[in-house]
Amino acid sequence: MQKNIKKYMLVLLAVLLGALLTVCAIPVAQWLSIPENRSLVWQKIDALGPWGAVIFLVIQILQVVIAFIPGEPVELAAGLLYGTWGGLLICLTGILLGSSMIFAVVRRFGRPLVQRLVDEESIQKYAFLTDARKLDTLIFLMFLIPGTPKDTLNYLCPLTSISPVRFLVLSTFARIPSVISSTFAGANFAEGNLLASVIVLGITSAVGLLGIRYEHALTDHLNRSAARFRERMNSGKHQ
Q: Which residue from 76, 69, 85, 82 is spatially nearest to 22, judged by alpha carbons?
């Protein structure tokens, strides 16, 4: 009962946070809807030259490495400043670089490091990732489903047998739908298309809430399936 209450409180908090971010973004979007203001922003970005994109790229890398920093505001800002496709490119590059750094460090220092950074409940919750039969599919699925803690998963997946290249390809491509919805919303905010942005953010939030709502049931099912497989393997060895 207490777990259900906690889960619903987290969902409510996510809804309130999303609503707050939307309300806070509206004045910015209205200001940016004026062509003269957008021109001013672009002048400041151009004044930084390539360093503007580099600074934003570093921010995206930090968001991936420091797992508790939410990714959506960064992705919205990327779309706002660099457009849907430019923002997507910067975000995916930052995600790829940040994930590569985490993978290399975890592979070097192993489970003791992860246990310092990730709570034991999350480690046990995603224990099914040790199921090597469907590892590629499971990793792609976990990074595709909205609402899963993707930056936490970055620290858990290197503990599995997956190769670095396969992990980076699967996890990066699986994130594209989520990232592009945010950069699209940010780009439309900047252009003054408030309705399009609100619709996209609303759909994204709704799908994210569904992901949060059913994530626990999905992980429980996957853990039970992995446990049954291990039992069959162990019984086969003893026969």
A: 76
